[in-house]
Amino acid sequence: MSATAGVAKKGAKRRVLYVSLPDQPDRICSGCETCQLMCSLEKTGAFNPKKSRVKVLPLAVGITIPITCQQCEDPACQKACPEKAIVPHPKLNLVVVDEKKCTGCLACVGACPYGIMAYDPEKKKALKCDLCEGNPACVQFCPSKVLELAGPQRSAEINRRRFAAILANEDTAARNNLAGAEQIKTLPRTLTLLAAQASKAITEGGR
Amino acid sequence: MIVRLKLFSPLSDAAGASELTLALNEPATLKTVVDTLIARFGEGMKRHLYDLEGRIIPSWAVFLNHEVIPLNKPDALDTEIVAGDELSFILNIAGG
Amino acid sequence: MIMARKKGSYAGKILRVDLSSGKIEKQDLDLDFAHKYIGGRGFGSRVLYNEVPPEVGPLDPENRLIFSPGALFGTAVPAASRTTATAKSPVTEMFGDGHSSGHWGSLLKSAGYDQLIIQGAAEKPVYLWIDNDRVEIRDAKHLWGKSNMETNESLLETHGSREIGTLSIGPAGEKKVRLACIFSDGIMGTFARTGIGAVMGSKNLKAVATRGTGDVGIVDIEAFKRAYQDYLQVIAVDPYVPPATKYGTCRFMYHRVKFGIHGANNWRLGDFDWKPLDPEVFRSDYQIKASACPMCPVRCRREYRISTGKYAGTVTKLEWETIARCMTCGVNDPEAVIYFSHLCNQYGLDVEGVGDTIAFAMECFEKGLISERETEGLRLAFGNSDALMEITRKIAYREGLGDLLAEGSLRAARAIGKGAEKYAMQVKGSEMSAADPRGMPVRAVSYATSTRGSDHLRSNPYVEELITPDEGLQHFGSKEAADIFQGLKGKGKLLAWSENFVTIGDLLGLCKFAYYRSATFGYLRRKGVELATRFYNACNGTRLSEEEMLQAGERAFNMEKAFNVREGAGREKDIIPERFFKEALAGGGPSNGAVVDREKFDLILDEYYGSRGWNEKTGLPKKETLKKLGLADIADDLQKRNRLG
């Protein structure tokens, strides 16, 4: 096992992504939260959204977003752990929680810039997405098909389309003086904007 | 001959339109209309007209001009269609 | 070896709160009870029968307010997210319940409880805070008067988390408006009918807030996953589903139009200028979100926003019945419909009860039974949407004429007199729902037989819309059962079966649109009986057969019937408004010119009672029927009161 900081390279980095595309306005998170329960079922054998590694956030009326572990290149969770309990997965290119070493101190929970480290209140252990050994339950069971296990090229494609939508939105807003534009017409772009702002915050130093 | 169709979801989704004209050979029946729709629009249309056992889905009510022909009647598909007829396919499922 | 029975997806406890004494009690859930009554409506109806005798009035402290999540709520069974609220109804003065989606029910189960029973009444406004095993009755002075959204927000803030569930009443429930309802999680879902919001208000209970962090268990994960995939396969081909996903419940408009059964202008017109309310209009001009109830793949909830005009800024949810009841009031402006829904959501009012009651008042106004003196200058005419909003507000706050209308159309009619009762479109006191039954005999009877007053969801006679004549013969004894307009034989049996069938959904917490509607009888039974039973067995490690599950539905229905019969209701209450028998429908569809044929109605009702094992003439349950369903104690109770068939 490599002793270098970060993760030993074992295949391309993959993560579960929320794939809401501005040109497919019907393909959007419906807020059904099936992903949460299927995650906890897969990982714990019972239904408990608190133990889910994917979280659905209602942001405002009309907007729910599933937040997933981004399988960071330089994981803040691993850096924050005082027990060195966050370790490379034996097969996949990601880190996981070693429950034997985890003391439930919650440092990783606070450090994750996406707020996606979960916590088992009964066992007092941190919980992290491990892509279900390569066949994520959330992706399998999402009825709206907005979660995807994506490698670098698919991730790039999605980011490209989102960025283009932001540019188009700014373009349109400038042309039509749509400051305070109705949420109805710009909802898909609003989602994209929120996602872009979230990722901007992370790359600018993590919040 | 030409007949005009009004479709609602999910048939309109499969057809990509909610109003259609069909050119049919005479003599034509309701079955001709159904078969033509499937021939033209494929699986997306077929799965909502015929069930998994290959039977016509009974809860379709076809409004032929102003008459209603529920497709659960055994001879419904034999209904004669003539030039200029207007048909609407509506799911006969009320509820609220 | 006797295997220990597993708790499965039951939480394991029943929580009882007495608001008069402040006593809080927890009882273990008996698995015999659980596997017999299943959950949801089954639990609620049993406890109501046990604990609320005829001497107790609906607004008395001794009435129970019972919340029972469906047995599968809290699991990932598709569309299993419904909870039942049961109480003696202020509007029917007999059995009452409501069913809602939302989050709260699963939080109750995660907190460790399969049922919450509330009795007594607090001296001043309180709310209940359930935090896993910590249960407190707290002061609600700061919440009293708030709308449902405000109450939900305030509770989320107080308890420092967005991961709690809430139930609340709005100002209408506080004022004990008989048309008041209870909301779940702000305006996420509503326990709409039978005025149970007034029961909650009579207990001075403003809200219930719940936090739960426990597991909801499951016994056989592989069986669950197989059933899940099979379910997805059926809905992939069922033509009922895509319009639901595309339009939400607005979709029912096209059917009403074609069949000419709007119920417009207080159930006089089957034809109406519906175009402004086209589902496409709602979808393209107002829809901001197509959302889903928890775990549901159909995604038929809608959120709407009005951006311009006099209702600009309104953001709310609405369902079909709001659109339908606005047409009952002659209103066809989509923005007025959305705003009316918003008002009812915030005040906590049942749109059906209120819509029909206002339509009743509009007809009285039209016919001169009430005048601008009673309406305080309001021109209460059909189509006057400003008047609709103003009178809705007055009903919520019991002001002026609103105080009378807050009693529901039947009581208001009795107070007005002068023959007003014939304009009150209600069954057993509860206002009409869904669509016009004229020309369709079983539809008519189904409104009459529902145990909680007019209710299409309770009786769900739509089986007749999707069976073939051969299936009619095979399952209900006659090919006629498949003929909606002309059929007679087999219809009573069909109705009884349909009622038992759809009740399964209420026991398990399954949404009717996801399981109890379909396009073929095969798909319907596949979803609503076979898969429902497989899901229940997978989650609980039980081995109920499909027949036993249907019987559990029959059991719940019989308990409710017994409750009503104990209250003195007999065949005379299984009737629909006179208008449907006497006045021909003025509409543009196949039912144009039709009435409900009284003779057919009675023949179907006779067959229905017979097939239910009730006395064919009186409709009273027979002893053998109740005993066969494991309700011998109820049979004895009714026998003592001379109320057996």
Which descriptors would you attach to this protein?
heterotrimer; A: 207 residues; alpha+beta; Alpha-Beta Plaits; two-stranded antiparallel ribbon; two-stranded antiparallel sheet; 8 strands; 35% helix; disordered C terminus; C: 645 residues; Aldehyde Ferredoxin Oxidoreductase Protein, subunit A, domain 2; Aldehyde Ferredoxin Oxidoreductase Protein, subunit A, domain 3; 6-stranded mixed β-sheet
Your description of this structure?
- The complex is a heterotrimer of chains A (207), B (96) and C (645).
- The longest helix of chain A is centred in the C-terminal third of the chain and has 25 residues, at 152-176.
- The model of chain A is unreliable at 1-8, 177-190 and 201-207 (pLDDT under 50).
- Chain A contains six helices and eight strands.
- A two-stranded antiparallel sheet of chain A has the order 1-8. In chain A, strands 2-3 form a two-stranded antiparallel sheet. Chain A has a two-stranded antiparallel ribbon with strand order 4-5.
- In chain A, a hairpin with a 6-residue loop joins strand 4 and strand 5 (95-97).
- Chain A has a domain at 15-151: Alpha-Beta Plaits, CATH 3.30.70.
- Chain A is α+β, with helices and mostly antiparallel strands and 207 residues long.
- Chain B has 96 residues and is α+β, with helices and mostly antiparallel strands.
- Chain B has a single domain (2-91), classed as Roll (Ubiquitin-like (UB roll)).
- Chain B has three helices and seven strands, in the order βαββααββββ.
- Chain B has helices at residues 11-15, 30-41, 43-46; strands spanning 2-7, 19-23, 28-29, 60-64, 67-70, 80-81, 86-91.
- Chain B has a five-stranded mixed β-sheet. A two-stranded antiparallel sheet of chain B has the order 3-6.
- Chain C folds into three domains: 13-211, Aldehyde ferredoxin oxidoreductase, N-terminal domain (Aldehyde Ferredoxin Oxidoreductase,  A, domain 1); 243-431, Aldehyde Ferredoxin Oxidoreductase Protein, subunit A, domain 2 (Orthogonal Bundle); 441-509 and 545-640, Aldehyde Ferredoxin Oxidoreductase Protein, subunit A, domain 3, CATH 1.10.599.10.
- In chain C, strand 1 (13-18) and strand 2 (24-28) form a beta hairpin.
- In chain C, helix 13 packs parallel to helix 15.
- The two termini of chain C are 44 Å apart.
- The model of chain C has no long low-confidence stretch (mean pLDDT 95).
